[in-house]
Design a protein that fits this description.
The chain is built from 7 helices and 13 strands. By secondary structure, it is α/β, with parallel strands linked by helices. It has one domain: Rossmann fold (3-Layer(aba) Sandwich), CATH 3.40.50. It has a 7-stranded mixed beta sheet, with helices on both faces. A 6-stranded mixed beta sheet has the order 7-6-8-9-12-13. One of its GO terms (biological process) is proteolysis. It holds the Pfam family Peptidase_S51. Keywords: Hydrolase, Protease, Serine protease.
Length: about 230
């Protein structure tokens, strides 16, 4: 049986500070190899060079074979690149723009094939919500919005839940108005590890950080720690 893993990070990690690389170590520990191959996809930040540099600094320390995938310069053979990896890590930024670029290049389907083959899919912010049916994004300058994502795992996800003050009231409002029925909310310095589609585990790499499922029951909002 192929083990399938997604590690969705609500905020933090090497993009902010190398630090102790707690969540990065956790991700690499899922691959039982001395030197796992990991590819960074920084589409959401426009293939930002500093972001890529921090990726190389972080995962080189963890004895990984590192590479990245660009879309804003000449782009490699996507299927060959993705399906040869042990781990994919997707960076944060503009989720809507990222997904549009991926769709144009056909990366969506290749990532789904990779997931089914057992490649660990991971990422932060945009790279966390992209794996779900839908995600709550700040891609728009004036509002939060719910957008369609890859649909590899079921549900609607919201990153930065405790880090950005507009997140919690927005989630509460769209559940109360029945626009959505529930939302998986991931706090900063925390990640949700989804194993084989349905098994959830919270990975706290900060202080008392949680992943929550918010839903309405008997006209009351329920906050369930995952």
């Amino acid at each position: 049986m192929v083990n399938k893993n997604i590690v969705a990070i609500g905020g933090g990690g090497f993009g902010r500070s190398l630090g102790k690389l707690k969540i990065e170590k956790y991700i690499t520990s899922l691959i039982k190899k001395d030197r796992p191959k990991i590819c960074f996809i920084a589409t959401a930040s426009g293939d930002n060079d500093l972001y890529k540099l921090n990726f190389y600094r972080a995962f080189s320390k963890l004895n990984c074979i590192t590479s990245h995938l660009d879309f804003f310069s000449r782009t490699e053979n996507l299927e060959k690149k993705i399906l040869s990896q042990d781990i994919i890590f997707v960076g944060g930024g503009n989720t809507k723009s990222m997904l549009a670029v991926w769709n144009e290049w056909g990366l969506n389907d290749i990532l789904k094939i990779g997931y089914e083959k057992g490649i660990v899919m991971s990422g932060v912010s945009a790279g966390a919500i992209c794996w779900f049916d839908k995600g709550i994004t700040d891609s728009f300058s004036d509002k939060l919005e719910v957008i369609d994502c890859l649909g590899i795992v079921k549900g609607i996800a919201c990153p930065h839940y405790d880090e950005e003050k507009e997140r919690e009231p927005f989630v509460n409002e769209i559940i109360k108005s029945q626009r959505i029925t529930s939302c998986i909310c991931i706090e900063g310095n925390c990640a949700l590890h989804i194993k084989n589609d349905f098994n959830y585990e919270t990975i706290n790499f900060g202080e008392n950080k949680n992943c929550l499922k918010i839903f309405k029951k008997n006209d009351k909002l329920i906050r369930k720690i995952l």
